[in-house]
Amino acid sequence: MGCNYSYDNSENDFEIVNNNHNYLIVKKDSNKKKTEVFMKSVIDDYKILNENSKNFKKINPKSKRKEKYPLVRLKPQKNNIRQDKNTINQKVILKNKLNSKKKEITKKPQKKIIKIRRKEINPLKIQYLKDIAKDSYSYFYLDNTFAVFKSRDNILYLIYSTKDMSIISYNLIENKIIIEIKNAHNELIINFRYFFDKINKTDLLISISYDNNIKLWDVNKWECLSDFKGINKNGYLLSACFLNDNNNYYIITSSYSDNSELLKIFDIKGEKVKEIKNSGDDTSFIDVYYDIKLKKNYIITGNIGYVKSYDYSKNELYHIYGENDLEDHCSIIINNHKEIINMIESSGDGSIRIWNFHTGELLNHITATKKRLFGMCLWNNEYLFVGCEDKTIKLIEIKSGDIINNLIGKNKVVLTIKKLFHPKYGQCLMSQGNKDNPIKLWTYKK
């Protein structure tokens, strides 16, 4: 590769510049503004520029004589460029660290949320511990005779009724009565249901009386928000529950020996919204189930002879579950921890039946005893505690259908069983027998 060159008498008029790959011979004019650039290839470093040049001397690469302006090969400065990039990157990283530290200093300290893992204990080690509410009173053959729940202000409540128609609010952690509402109803209080109002962040409770009246209570203030009077004029009201439909809250009531044979739906102010035909059966138990996948509400009723479900949005019967027995169905639980939604019901003939909720297919029939079965409680989705007429609480393994334990603790006929977590005792059971039998606490014993 050749090279162009230029001549000038002045030694200061030329400058050799390295651009990593080529040498640039720069000629300056007299004003030192305009320049002419002649490029010298690296390959021609040791060649003679031009033999015809008069004032440029031949360059001998082997000669040790120092020329005044020798063309010296300079090494590329790639490493230096890399070092510059690395230093720039390091500076950027340092700036980012400093900025992040400043943000951390300005941020407010956040409280650490500690999650307590509640290990499921062996249900075979559940034993009777003590009586709690010795003045409690309940009505024969019904479930949900008391309510137990943790309120929004972290109070573990036990709500029960007495023989003189009073409602007792009991603090299970401090073991003391919070309030006693005397003469809350005109006749015996037979049922309680709890519900948390997410919109107003209020703990709500309904009390159901044998006088066919329902009262809606604000648990945090213990104010009566609504009084539903004379719901069933031709019969009795034995059960009721809450239903949440698009953040609108309703109370659904059952009918027993009522010629109208209707499920009645009220808003929380006491105004009747609609009615659903109950297919001609008396109802002693009622509950609701919300299917998350289908986004639909269903009403479930325990009747004489059959268990039934209703589509709330369509106001019509969904399924009938039954084997043509003429016994009461006193309690119903929905177990939806698997793909198939299981419905478990206890019967007056001493049987436990497990149904496919959406198809009505009978999945299992467990003959537990010849005595009546009442309230139930699931334990770890594998076991079932069931109250019995023989004054025991039976522990049934759902998969095998075997009775693996009988809890005995000076019971009468066991009507209601609830599971709770007590800060002192851990996972516990609470049960209530019929009439003037105290509420009992069952807990794990090592």
Oligomer: single chain
- Unreliable residue stretches: 1-12, 19-23, 32-43, 48-59, 61-69, 77-83, 107-117
Q: What's the Cα radius of gyration?
A: 43 Å
Strand content: 35-45%
CATH architecture of the largest domain: 7 Propeller
**CATH fold-level label of the largest domain:** Methylamine Dehydrogenase, Chain H
Helix fraction by DSSP (H/I, runs of at least 4) = under 10%
Number of domains: 2
Any idea of the CATH class of the largest domain?
Mainly Beta
Arrangement of strands in the largest sheet: 4-31-30-29
How do you describe this structure in short?
It contains one helix and 31 strands.
Describe this protein's structure.
- With 446 residues, the chain is mainly β.
- The protein folds into 2 domains: 1-79, no CATH class; 127-444, YVTN repeat-like/Quinoprotein amine dehydrogenase (Methylamine Dehydrogenase, Chain H).
- 7% of the residues lie in helices and 45% in strands.
- It contains 1 helix and 31 strands.
- The strands form 8 sheets. It has a 4-stranded antiparallel β-sheet with strand order 4-31-30-29, with no helix packed on it. The protein has a 4-stranded antiparallel β-sheet with strand order 5-6-7-8, with no helix packed on it.
- A hairpin with a 4-residue loop joins strand 9 (189-197) and strand 10.
- The chain is globular, with a radius of gyration of 43 Å.
- It starts with 13 loop residues before the first strand and ends with a strand.
- Residues 1-12, 19-23, 32-43, 48-59, 61-69, 77-83 and 107-117 have low confidence and may be disordered.
Considering the chains and any ligands shown, give keywords for the structure.
2 domains, 446 residues, 1 helix, 4-stranded antiparallel beta sheet, globular, disordered N terminus, 7% helix, Methylamine Dehydrogenase, Chain H, mainly beta
